[in-house]
């Protein structure tokens, strides 16, 4: 029998977060941990919390979510990351919008997030409302294979916007930021290469400066004061590294 609503958490070595995440999802009909063969206690903790565990090799974020769409048999899937928490208010809203299937046209819902960076809740810089398309009617959604990171689902229908937020404990330290960005830059650079984006000598200056201006000025990062400046600067550096890696990929592909 197909359940109405399943929450799905993608994991790879998330023993620090998975227990609290699953506790915040106890209201769902089913909780699924879609694991990329963790080597820590992630699977053990998930099963102890009563979650169903499925394991699938990780290729990229888009492919992993698409695999979960195919594997989890539920009318609605609510994707939540291990470092996110669903509030009781969000749980009630999700239950409400998925419980009126005959009366609504939406087949997906964007969810706003509060992002906590080194203990600070960000208010600008694109970190709020930071809508994520996470609540999906399974048979009406698929993920774009051309976006291996920062993935977005494609819907056969309309999407709405929820009001209640997910809590996202984004980065506890600068070391964690650097570790995650090192992973993301590889995917981002490959995506730019596939789009035939070329690196010019001035790209290394113009694109990071553009990113800092976008984060700190246009998206109101200044409202977070020193945190806004810090993470605007770090995202500018992340942009520089991405284009530097794009240049390496381009040179390597040309040799081959």
Largest sheet, spatial ordering of strands? 3-2-1-4-9-6-12
- Taken from the alpha-carbon principal axes, the silhouette is globular
What is the helix fraction of residues, given as a range? Answer: 25-40%
What CATH calls the topology of the largest domain is Spore Coat Polysaccharide Biosynthesis Protein SpsA, Chain A
CATH superfamily of the largest domain: Spore Coat Polysaccharide Biosynthesis Protein SpsA, Chain A
Mean pLDDT: 94
Helix-strand category = alpha/beta
**Low-pLDDT windows of residues:** none
Amount of beta strand: 15-25%
Architecture per CATH nomenclature, i.e. the level-2 architecture of the largest domain: Alpha-Beta Complex
Order of helices and strands: EHEHEHEEHEEEEEEEEHHH
Cα distance, first to last residue?
51 Å
Name of the level-1 CATH class of the largest domain: Alpha Beta
Q: How many beta strands in the DSSP annotation?
A: 13
Q: Summarize the main sheet.
A: 7 strands, mixed
- Count of individual domains: 2
Number of helices: 7
